[in-house]
Amino acid sequence: MRQYMGLATVSGNLGVSLAWRWGLWACLWAGSILGENALAAAEAGGFPNVAFYRGTDAPLDLLQAFDEVIIDPATSALPSPERYPHTRWAARLEITQKDYQSTPAAWLEKTLTPLWEKGFHDFYLADKAGLPSMEQFYTAVSAEDRWLSLALTEIHGKFKGARIFLRNHPPVAEAHSNLLTGWVVESIFQPYDALQGWFLTVDQGRLNGTLSQLHRWQEKHPQIPLIDLEFAQKYDRQAQRSLAQKSAQAGLIPYVTSQEQDSVGLGKLEVMPRKILVVQSLDPGTAIEEGTGSKILSLPMDYLGYDIQYVNVNEGLPEDITPDRYAGIAVFLDKDVTDQDKWRLWFLQEVHRHVPIAVFDRFGFDIDFETAQTLDLEVLPGGYLPGATARILHTAPMIGFEHAPQVEIQDAVGLAIGPSGQSLAQIQVGDKVMDMAATLPWGGYALAPFSLEYVGELNRDYWVIDPLKFLRQALSLPAMPVPDTTSENGRRLFFVQVDGDGFPSRAEFPGYDYGAEALYDQIFKKYPIPMTVSIIEGEISPTGKYPALSPTLESIARKIFALPNIEIGSHTYSHPLDWILADPRYGQQKEQLSMQIPGYTFDLKREIEGSIEYINGRLAPPGKKVRVLQWSGAANPTAAALEEAWKAGLYNINGGDTLPVKPDGSWTDISGAGIAKGEGDQDYQIYAAEMNENIYTNEWTRPFYGMVRVLETYEITEFPLRLKPVDIYFHFYSGTKLASLKALQNVYEVTLKQPVFPVYTSDFIQKVLDARHASVAMQEGQWRIRTGRSLREFRLPVGEVPDLARSHGVIGYLSVPGGTYVHLGEDQARVALLPVGHPADGLPYVSAATAYITHFERQGRTIRFDARGYYQPYVLLNHADPACRFTVDGREVRPTEDGKGRLKVSFPSSVGEQGPVHGIEVRCRD
Predict the structure, then answer these.
(1) Is the dihedral of CA 553, 557, 558, 560 positive or negative?
(2) H-type helices in 82-165, by residue range?
(3) Cis peptide before 663 (omega within 30 of 0)
(4) Closest by alpha carbon to 214, among 18, 403, 394, 29?
(5) What are phi and psi of 592, to 5 degrees?
(6) End-to-end CA distance of the chain
(7) Which end of the chain, N or C, is less surrounded by CB atoms within 10 Å?
(8) Distance CA 46, CA 225 (A)
């Protein structure tokens, strides 16, 4: 486990003075500068967290953990306040000697005015001048100081509300502290010689003198944060933590970053990197989702809380994989690497950068003596006596997860670990003892057959090593709060998605002409829960395949879309079967790659935007529009198709292969939440949570009641760990046969008896996208979380629970065998933890709920909040007793007991996306 910076408390009178100053900074910062957002920040750490970044491609998702980030406007545009509402962004203004020769007014007009018009209202004034010597600290006023004094006055006169950070220049900071938002001093503890490229040692006497002057300034100007910007080696996070600790112990607000200021640094706050790079070896032209790593590693990475970036080792390797952004690298090479030497050098470079690496199956390069030394491995001499066999000497408990290892002599790899390693699987061949799986300071490896085992008769891979335990140990992953997309307020998410296939198909039982009519009566109306329903335009429109049927089919579609619980989706125009081959830009268009519509050839814009315009214009009722694009066929959209859907304002879903069933199901049958096919959300494909009836009926060949087996999938993905939400996913042809319709009803009935939280498909999708961008940071023993508009659930490790009295933004929690689900009431939170074994604090809290909860407030043992749920909503409360007063919308109600010591408050549901929000109050005696 990674060690976090534990900043020691400053003792004595200085500590009291500094604590007082930090508290005052927090109040002033929160009250007059940043408003409500900074109040939470002040409560979290006692002072604002400030970061500096000058590189290109700023990692905004990580930087948003800070309250103020100073960026270079030449390389970074002003980030969206909607996406990052709790962070302010200041523009760095580098003042040159040439600028000093002009008037401050002219300089402002040239430099600051354009930035102000672009939305920047915070500015950082910096030049090349360093902190003066102690003799000049206050007395020597330079021409530059006088120029800056005039500039500050000009800025506040012309740009009302501008906030200014100043670098160095103590006389200016002394004389014009009332015009500053923050004062930045630089390299107090570890100066950097940019010309020579090395760090300098500070004389202790000079350091003490500098700190004395800075403390005196703090005493005189307690309302101004004093920020110490320090530099350390880019890849040495431990050195950065140590330097930040020194600065904090001296009473300064530290921020330590790389010399180039192109990495995410740390101070009292350390942001957890939440990206993992997965390296695969794919043949030319192979889609990224076809790689074994893509198929089997996405689930464990999702569960551990990481966003995956994929790379094909044979198509080039990225150079920006650094420990401030990436928690680690996972390598799964099931094919040969084209350039092994290049791959080895890149691998060793990342080891040098201290980015942990976990290797599955094979390294992909021959390990020579020098490489072995770097990795603390020993290469054993080859050659075995005739008749030699391999036998397993020892395995760690994480080996044998789904399948016991079976080793043959041809599997043996002549490697042994050095003294720094820990063996996970050891075999013997003759007189040689080999370590086939191990963890080491740089990461770890699990070579075949101690990673996966392929079982031919079942045509399935099984995990030999527990992927969660191995990844945690090999990558030194911290036990941090995990963004959870399976749940809301402790309840498992449940959504329905219907693909349009078979809408024109006739019902094969009495009472209905079309299967779509049967679904309307027996599913869509019968179960008033959120459902997302799509159609294929080419099946039902006048310009489609069945123009004579169009009036009847369109009237059925309009009736379905008019239901208040139905969200509208599009299943495209012609239902392409293979999105890569169907698009001439990526492959060759062939016959039967989509529905055969007379006179139509594939057109990406027509498939997506055209179908949306058709549905919105002819089928959707007033006030409703298409929200989701449901991929057709192989559900393998190209990045261009994903971007087309994004430009059209749609969320997207489908793909993945989650279909484990008893008794032979495996975690390798479970996909992650989605796959990145580019850099942003516009290139991210969301996977269906589980597969549809086409799979469970053997591609609609029998048994037609096979959809009931999806209940086995729901169970496997819930126990012993909740891995996926519930997704009832089917097509319109399920309404054509009595067996399939009854199977579908059975699935609904069983699911709705479970403790699930019905939501729309778009709700789930938004949570997945938010989870990719959420920031998780540690500050002085507490977690700081910033999420997004939709994500409100995080999971703590087993045994950890939040301290409600010291946390902010937490409405409650639910402990289960897999961990503790922590429920947030807003898009940022501070989570303090109770010590293991410490009794709970006794405050009332939400244990679980099938409703969205907002505007949560706590005053002692009284809590108030708004709640809205789509289907039979309720709230379960812990540490509340019948003597408490419960009201819903101002009317007193009587709660019921759930048999587990919790009280249940129910209230009316909100059918559809727009519905009543209920005000709930629980008032208990202190």
Answers:
(1) positive
(2) 97-100, 104-107, 113-117, 143-158
(3) yes
(4) 18
(5) 65, 20
(6) 40
(7) C
(8) 11
pLDDT at position 837: 73
Q: Would you state the structure tokens that stand for residue 553, as one six-digit string? A: 């089919």
Please name which of 35, 247, 70, 101 lies closest in space to residue 164, comparing C-alpha atoms.
Answer: 70
Write b or e for each residue in 365-403: b if 16 or more Cβ atoms lie within 10 A of its Cβ, otherwise e.
bebeeebeeebebbbbeeeeeeeeebebeebbebbbbbb
Tell me the chain's radius of gyration from C-alpha atoms: 30
| 774 pLDDT more than 60 | yes
Overall average pLDDT of the 772-791 stretch: 97
Per-residue CA distances from 68 to 74, 119, 256, 786 (Å) = 18, 15, 15, 14
Structure tokens at 866: 């708004």
Provide CB contacts within 8 A for 194, sequence distance 6+: 259
C-alpha dihedral (847, 850, 855, 856), degrees to nearest 10: -10
The token duo for 512 is: 């209905």
Q: What is the DSSP string of 119-135?
A: T--EEEEE-S--PPPGG
11: its two tokens: 């003792």
Which residue would you say has higher pLDDT here, 851 or 17?
851
DSSP element (H, E) containing 28: helix 12-28
- The 10s digit of each residue's pLDDT in 17-51 is 343 334 444 444 443 333 333 333 344 345 789 99
**What is the C-alpha to C-alpha distance for residues 851 and 870, in angstroms, rounded to an integer?**
7
Q: Which residues pair with 254 in a beta bridge?
A: 228
Contact criterion met (CB below 8 Å) for 651 and 687: no
In one letter, which amino acid is 848?
A: A
DSSP state, 313?
G
Residues 665-704 have pLDDT tens digits of 999 999 999 999 998 999 999 999 999 999 999 999 999 9
